[in-house]
Amino acid sequence: MTPNAMSLTERAAWILERNASESQTLAGLAAACGVSRSHLAHAFGTATGTPVMQYLRGRRLSEAARSLAAGAPDILTVALDTGYGSHEAFTRAFRDQFGRTPESVRQQGSLEGLPLVASVELHGAADRQVESPRFVTSTATRAVGLTESVSFATTMRIPGQWQRFMSQHFDAIPHRIEGMPIGLTLPADDDGGFAYACAVEVRSFDDAPAGLDRFDLPARSYAVFEHHAHVSTIFDTYAAIWNVWLPAAGRSAADAPAIEHHHDAFDPSTGEGGLSIWIPLTPATAPPRTP
Between the CA atoms of 214, 217, 218 and 221, what dihedral angle is there, to the nearest 10 degrees? Predict the structure, then answer.
C-alpha cells in the first residue's frame, strides 16, 4: 500500500512502529501526520477502538515482553529501548499493562497468559466511503447541555446520556431556541478520553440550571456530512470522515467541538431519521481537493 493510499490511522500506526523507541506525544505524532491533535485522536480511536497513546504504550511493552521472554540479559536496557528512563518507571508500566513484573516474565521465559497488544489491523477502514460534504460558515452559537466523559470503547453510554438529558434536564433549560437538540463531541485527550454533551441551543445563558455546562461556540467554518443510516452506525461515518475524507481532501479538523444536528425527522424512539455531522475545519488557503 502506498502512503497516499493509507488511511490516517494506518499512517499514524506506521510512524509509531517505526519510531517506537523514541519519545512520542500525541501532538508530535499529529504534526508528523499533518493534522491536529483532535483530528488524529478521533481518527485513530474511531478506527481501532483504542486511544492512540494507549496503543503506543501497549505496543512498546508487548515488544519488551517478547525480548524478556527471549532471555534479554539486562532489564534496564530493555526499559531504555522501550522509551522509559528508569528501571522503576518501566517496571511500574509493565505491571500495570500485564499484571506481572519484567523479572517474572524473563524468569519464566514465556509469553503465555500475557495480553499482548498486536500491531493495528484495520478492517476495511480505508475503503469506507462518505458523501461529499457541504461547507458552512456558522454564526456564533450558545448551547447548554449535559456533559459526560466517555472513550472510544464506551460510546454505547451515549444513548443513555441522551435519555437522562431529555427526561431530567431539557424542559428546565430556559431561553431555548426552537429546534432539535444537538450533540457536541469535544476534542480527545492524550489517553483517548473525550467529553460528549447532549445540548440545546439557547438565546442566553441566564438562569441556566446548575449541573449543566455552557458552550459558547464562535463562528467558524465546518464541513457538514450527512449520516442517513441508523444512529448506532454513526461512528462508521465518523471513521470515514477522520481517516479517509479529510486526509484525501487535504483538510484537517480543528481542535474544537464537532456538532451533531439531528434532522427534523429524527425519531429518538427508533434511532432513525438521520443527522448532520459538522466537523470544524482549520483555516485553509486553498479549496479542498475532491477525494
Answer: 180
Contacts of 168 (CB under 8 A, 6+ apart): none
What is the enclosing helix (H) or strand (E) of 43? helix 37-48
Q: By the 8 A CB rule, do 45 and 51 touch?
A: yes
Q: Per residue in 150-189, pLDDT tens?
A: 888 778 688 889 988 998 899 999 999 999 999 999 998 8
190, 260: one domain: yes
Closest Cα partner for 281 from 240, 253, 258? 253
Considering the domain architecture, whether residues 66 and 158 belong to the same structural domain is answered as no
DSSP string, 117-154: PPPP--SSGGG---PPPEEEEPPPEEEEEEEEEEETT-
* Nine cell digits for residue 196: 460528549
Claim to verify: residue 265 and residue 224 sit in the same structural domain: yes
CA distance 186 to 184: 6
